[in-house]
Amino acid sequence: MRGIRPDTMIRFLQRLLMTIAILLASIPCAFAETRTISWDPVTTYTGGTPLDAGTINYTAYWTTDPGLGSLHAIGPSLTTTSTAFDPDVLGMTRGGTVYFTARAVLSTGEASPLSPAYAWVVPPAPATPVAPAAPTGGIIIKKK
Amino acid sequence: MKRLAAMRMLLGGFAAVLLLAGCGGGGEGGTSQSQGPAPSGPVSVLAWTPPTTYNDNLPLDPERDLDYYEIYVRQDPNFTDSDQPAIQIAAVAATVSPDGRTLARSPVTEFTLESIPSLPAGNQLFVSMRAVGVDRQKSAFMDPVAWDRS
After folding, report:
1. pTM of the entire structure?
2. Which domains does chain A possess?
């Protein structure tokens, strides 16, 4: 972890959050209410020195605070570059705006600052189809 | 005049084709009313009132929102979700106006039970039905109606 500087991680995470924004806007739900956030792996330091993938974890957060207070982690820390979430399970308000951010953490415990917030409007819940009422007034008439 | 007459014949033929198409049962490839045996002699006609609301009490337009009905026949009145419909019939019929120029859509509200291809044995049967919306949501069963076939 030699030579790592906080501004290195900030720069890479800005790129990471841009990827999140694109995916949230373009990927349809594979399941009813599952959304996926993905990002490019952070592979180098600012100076171009390769970063061992095994030494870095990512934690994605969401919050309703545009100032990124009161963060809620989206699952545990990940070595992978995507995670799925259900807006209802996480307690996001339908139609409300939430803000995503993320941070990279090295195995040494060093963590980057939070990346800039990415705003997302939680889509309305899909309408549940309602069945028609039953027919009424059934009668059998004999006709010639 | 000849052209007008020919045009009327063409429109009439088109209307007849649409009318026949309207007689088919909707959805899921079920048996349609037109495929049943032609009844002879007195027939039993099941009549009903189409639903005008959804289960959440929002209004429903039978001509627009219903796709077809499922008619069920049993030897007892205990209809269950696992029962298979005896026949499906379209919820909306297209009828030609008296002058043969226009087609009118109207809700189907009756069905000749003898048109059902296969019926349970017995002279005392029970009939029920479910309405199926255009989004394939099925209503509950209509209250069973006793059918005396004797």
Report:
1. 0.53
2. 6-121 (2.60.40.10)
